[in-house]
Amino acid sequence: MKTLVLAEKPSVGKELGRVLGCTMAKDGYMENKQYVVTWAFGHLVELADPSEYDKRYETWDMQDLPMLPEKMKLKVISQTARQYRLVKTLLQRKDVTQIIIATDAGREGELVARWIIDKANCHKPMQRLWISSQTDKAIKEGFAHLRPAKEFEPLYKSAVCRAEADWLVGLNVTRALTCKYNAQLSAGRVQTPTLAMIVAREEEIRHFQPKEFATIKVELDGFVMEYRKQGQAALFDLALAEQLQHSLAHGNITIDKVECSSKKELPPQLYDLTELQRDANKRFGFSAKYTLNLMQSLYETHKVLTYPRSDSRYLSADIVPTLKERLQAIAIDAYEPFAHMILKKGIKVNKRIVDDSKVSDHHAIIPTEEYVELQRLSHDERCIYDLVIRRFLAVLSDVCLYEKTRIEGSCNKHHFFASGKIMKQAGWRSLYQRNDVFDEEEEEEIQSLPIVKQGQNYAIRQVIKQKSFTKPPLRYTEASLLSAMEHPAKFIHNAKWKQVLEDANGIGTVATRADIIEKLFHVNYIEKRGNTIYPLSKGIQLINLVPEQLRSPLLTAQWEDKLTKISQQQLKPQQFMKEMRSYAASLVEAVKQSEASYRHDNMTQKKCPECGNYLLEVNGKRGKRLVCSNPACKYKQNLTLNSNARCPNCHKKLTVVGEKEKRLYTCTCGFREKFDRFNEQLKQKNNKAGKQELKAYMRKQEQAVKQEKSAFQLAWEAALKK
After folding, report:
1. Closest to 289 in 3D by CA, of 274, 271, 268
2. Strand locations in 66-159, DSSP E?
3. Residues in the chain with pLDDT < 50?
4. In chain numbering, where does the site feature Interaction with DNA fall (predicted)?
């Protein structure tokens, strides 16, 4: 009798098969005398399309809405139907007596496996593999401590509720908007509140009225002090600023107070996925989705980091005994002295690091016990790995200690302030560059100060008046948008609901936020200029068209809160789905009754070759393209494509224009080259570089052999002398 192991992806399935000793590799699965290991390609089964409930849903008509099927159906995804049929056959094999679910350890992973098993009508006994890393050790331990699948039944039910609610709300509102305004419009429970935050920020910026203000600083002997009135440095009374500048000239500052205090700066906490995506965007400009892909590679392929889709910044107590082995594994390259220092002093943990009550499905992202070969990582993978390792080392390092000096002075009843900082113990800060910024921003300018005593007088050498204007709020980057999605409480005024938002960890989940942002780019609601996000006309208009309750982040947080309660068996799924059906119907009715209008402001004079409607010009994330204005028509034509190839003149990324054999690489510096010719030249250059690298490698190998021979001869001669 055999056990079938169902993984989520081929790469993971093959690793599980290798560790379990499955030497017989077949098409789509691996096998030995005890196990049959197979895999999905993500979802193999999904919720059925509306047309499978009723033929009239094949055409989009407002009269047919809302669509509220009593029982939701499942369908096999056509693109991966072959693999589903294979998995179904393996599930139904007579020699397979039990199943081990080995998909990703989370809500969505549970859904992937259970839908396949349900669709295959399989009722064999099931167990669950629940691991946070893909190392051989973690896999073996996981199989040695399998958990009953029934334990994860509530998690599966919450996943089903999430999927069905998204179907009911998303498809109904999307069809209602598209039919009402004859435009390709879509809405959803997470994407719409996220878009609403971007649009609201744009409105703030557009209506912002800058105000002029001045600041006054006085230069003394060896340091600078700043004028403040009631704690504020900005002077909006420009006449007063002018008067101050003249009255302070040739005056004296009397030091009224000198305060020296020892400060302690704790290290930042470990990474969860959102915090890691935020830092990667700030420092490297990586999108949230790209960071997740890199993390997935470091987790699955290289096995050097733990499970990426974590929403916790803490470790569970069972991880503590493994910390020494993890430190030993990363004691290489620039990390070696820090790892050895921690091991020498002894590993110390506290409630900021280890707290079982704050770990749900997975602990924070940390290195595994697997020894890493840095040369095997790509440049971008190395960037993400470096962030995680430095944060891991920082958390286990000493606190940062410094002495802060704050000086208060006065001149003619005008008050001035200055502050300085002397580092006593760099601690965890020694892992980072001086300009690395963490959550705590400096309140005031820090400078080196001379020894200053109370009662001393200093002559004012120069009065510096600077004029400036108040600045509008900054547009979102992916980093700041992720923060807003995680902590949207500031958009709610009611104190009770603020807490609900915080308890629900914001809108979306760590696993879905990156996909939500990507979808907003894909449907042309937003675009990126540099690292800054701008809402497009289509997105701005949509927010004015959707029902108001769908724009609020509060609603989404309440949903997530209810889904969590379902997974904890505190709420019945039937009750939640009844609410969702009623809610979807109310949204459709709101769209039907709306008197708003929609205007295509990106319509061209070109007509669609397939249906004759006018084409729209849109800026996608990868470049410009034309799409048909008729929602039922799927015609698309690329105008430009942003490539990863670099200009040989200025080294900026090249843009591809034209179609098929007429494609050209172009650059803002004026460079132009035929697409095929440039690629051929690039290929030849890479081949040449490869030969040069090979020769250099061979030379190094020869030198190493000579050095070994030399060392051996010296050792032999020394032995002979003895």
Report:
1. 274
2. 74-76, 96-102, 126-128, 147-148
3. 439-443, 705, 708-709, 711-712, 716, 722
4. 60, 167, 175, 309
d(CA 458, CA 248): 12
pLDDT of residue 422: 85
Single-letter amino acid code for the residue at 404: K
Q: What are phi and psi of 244, to 5 degrees?
A: -60, -45
* Euclidean distance between CA atoms 254 and 457, whole angstroms: 5
The secondary structure of 176-242 as a DSSP string is HHHHHHTS-----TTHHHHHHHHHHHHHHHHT----EEEEEEEE-SS-EEEE-BTTB--B--HHHHH
Handedness of CA 76, 82, 88, 92 (dihedral sign): positive
Length of the chain: 722
Q: Considering only CA atoms, which of 397, 403, 394 is closest in space to residue 438?
A: 394
**Rounded distance between C-alpha atoms, residue 686 and residue 175, angstroms:** 49
The whole-angstrom separation of Cα 93 and Cα 102 is: 19
8 annotated ligand binder: yes
Alpha carbons 534 and 478: distance in angstroms, whole number: 11
Question: What value, to the nearest 5°, has the Cα angle with vertex 247 and ends 242 and 248?
Answer: 100
Strands 462-469 and 457-459, sheet pairing: unpaired
Q: Decide: residue 86, CB within 10 A, 0-12 exposed, 13-18 middle, 19+ buried.
A: middle
pLDDT for 702: 59
- pLDDT, residue 82, reads 94
* 3-class secondary structure, 562: helix
Burial class of 520 by CB neighbour count within 10 A (0 to 12, 13 to 18, 19+): buried
Tokens of 571: 């709420």
Q: What is the pLDDT of residue 692?
A: 58
Give me the pLDDT at residue 441, please. Answer: 44
> Quick one: 212-266+400-469 is in which CATH superfamily?
Topoisomerase I, domain 3 (2.70.20.10)
What SS3 class is residue 654?
strand
Residue type, 699: R
Enter the DSSP assignment of 335: G
What angle, 0 to 180 degrees and rounded to 10, lies between the N-to-C axes of helices 191-206 and 553-567?
150
For residue 26, give every residue at least 6 positions away whose Cβ sits within 8 Å of its Cβ, in sequence order, or none.
none
Question: Cβ-count burial of 242 within 10 angstroms (0-12 exposed, 13-18 middle, 19+ buried)?
Answer: middle
Bridge partners of 264? 401
Q: How far apart are the first and last CA of the chain?
A: 66
- Show me where the domains of the chain are located: 2-145, 164-206+475-593, 212-266+400-469, 273-395
Amino acid letter, residue 306: T
Q: Can you give the pLDDT at residue 138?
A: 87
- Would the CA dihedral through 121, 123, 125, 131 be positive or negative? positive
8 Å CB contact between 4 and 36:
yes
Q: Which CATH class is domain 164-206+475-593?
A: mainly alpha
H/E segment holding residue 545: helix 537-545
What b-and-e string marks burial along 481-519, b requiring 16 or more CB atoms within 10 Å of the CB? bbbbbbbbbebbeeeebbebbeebbbbbbbbbbbbbbbb
Amino acid sitting at position 719: A
State the Cα–Cα distance between residues 220 and 217, nearest whole angstrom. Answer: 10
How far apart, in whole angstroms, are the C-alpha atoms of residue 16 and residue 102? 9
Label residue 261 left, alpha or beta by phi (over 0 means left) and psi (-120 to 50 means alpha): beta
CATH, domain range 273-395: 1.10.290.10
**Residue at token pair 């049959």:** 36
Q: Are 90 and 4 in contact (CB under 8 A)?
A: yes
Which residues are marked as active site?
307
Amino acid, single-letter form, for residue 336: E
What's the pLDDT score for residue 438?
56
Report the chain's C-alpha Rg in angstroms.
31
Distance, in Å, from the CA atom of 292 to the CA atom of 273, rounded to the nearest integer, reads 8
Q: Say if residue 71 is exposed, middle or buried (CB neighbours under 10 Å; 0-12, 13-18, 19+).
A: exposed
Nearest to 172 by CA among 630, 539, 588: 588
2-145 CATH: 3.40.50.140
